[in-house]
Every structure is written in C-alpha cells, then in structure tokens.
Design goal:
Blueprint: H1 2-7, H2 12-18, H3 22-46, H4 52-72
C-alpha cells in the first residue's frame, strides 16, 4: 500500500480512507475501466449514422486507442 500511495502522491493512511487493501484498489481500477468501456459502447450504439459492422469497427478502434493511451502515460 505504501508503494501505491507513493505513486499516487499521497500517504498510505490517506489511501486507506478510500480502500482497505490492494484487492479493493484493483477492483476499483477494473470497475472504472469497465465503466469507461460501457460509456464508449453506449455512445457508439447511439450513433445512427453507423452500420452495425462500422459500430463494431469503431468500438474496437476506440478500445485499442484507449489502451494505448493508458500505457503511454
């Protein structure tokens, strides 16, 4: 937890205010990522200008772009 807190520029004590352990941090990160993906899917689905195959292509492209952004930061 101390290493994670350091990476977040906060104290371990402050980190424990939000999470009880590393598993909760991982679950929170996964939940945030899944929520972002869900929002992306909903936005693409609502686009009436795209055919179903174009929607799938757009989703795949956007997901890959999002992953690339996450690993480049």
């Amino acid at each position: 937890m101390a290493e994670i807190a350091k990476d977040c520029d906060m104290s371990a004590g402050n980190l424990y205010r939000y999470f009880d352990n590393k598993k909760e941090i991982a679950a929170g990160c996964a939940q945030r990522c899944m929520q972002q993906n869900l929002e992306l899917v909903r936005e693409i689905i609502r686009d009436t200008n795209l055919s179903p195959d174009k929607k799938l292509q757009q989703f795949a492209s956007d997901i890959l772009e999002h992953i690339q952004e996450q690993f480049s930061n």
